[in-house]
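User: Quick sanity check before I run a bigger batch. Here is a single chain. Can you write out its predicted 3D structure?
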Amino acid sequence: MAKKPANPNTAYGRKRIREEHQQWRNNATPEERANDDATGVIIWVVVVSICLLIAFLVGGTDGALRWLTH
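Assistant: Done. Predicted structure follows.
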């Protein structure tokens, strides 16, 4: 029987999810790790780009530069 999914709303559940992911990373091949890292980088680039676009749309060039310098 499969394990019940961990509840991310509890400290124990978050710890279990962290440990399961760490165990997966330890057992993953270098290609799987590289793919996981690349996915994380792409997500960060998209989030920062969206924030920069919103700052540009709201405050123009000055707003975008102000956001970048903070």
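The mean pLDDT is 90.

User: Great, the batch can go ahead then.
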